[in-house]
Amino acid sequence: MTRSPVIIITGTPGTGKSTHAELLVKESPVTLKHINVGEMVKDRGLHDGYDAEWQSYTVNEDKLLDELESLVSEGGIILDWHTCDIFPERWADLVVVLRCNHTLLWERLENRGYSLKKIQENNQAEIMGVIAEEARESYQPQLIVELESESMEDLQGNVGRMVTWINEWIANNTAG
Questions:
Q1: Residue 51 Ramachandran class (φ > 0 left, ψ -120 to 50 alpha, else beta)
Q2: What is the pLDDT of residues 108-167, one digit of tens each?
Q3: Chain centroid to CA 100: how far?
Q4: Is 59 helix (H, G, I), strand (E, B) or coil?
Q5: How many CA atoms lie within 13 A of 91 on its CB side?
Q6: What is the DSSP secondary-structure string of 68-124?
């Protein structure tokens, strides 16, 4: 039996990665497991400590990749993280880069209680398209799709597009 796809959902913090992943798990025609990579890093100690200035953990990439390797090889997962270039290209069947208007993003990050420095850094990254560029430098163009994530309509449309993609992926990757 063919494994299910591995989908990376990435984007600047506040673009809706986890919300998209959670809805996709519910609507997918195949069973998918949502892995919030940031939570995994924290919960499983896959870091080298906490950086108080940036209010985040310093990820130990080797530990993280070792932890994810067997899960990815089984397929049927969504990797949800604010970066994607750490993941080997061979892992990805689809890379979704979520984008958001910087004014709306600023509001979302303020509502999360982010520090001004962290809001500014993430907002600048979104304006400059840093995550999208990382994806383009790390994966073949046919694997990448950039989607706007500013409203509930965007969320529903984006998940609908991903479900369509999964159905096409299944049709193209099923032996028989």
A1: beta
A2: 999 999 999 999 999 999 999 999 999 999 999 999 999 999 999 999 999 999 999 999
A3: 14
A4: strand
A5: 21
A6: HHHHHHHEEEEEEES--TTS-GGG-SEEEEEE--HHHHHHHHHHTT--HHHHHHHHH
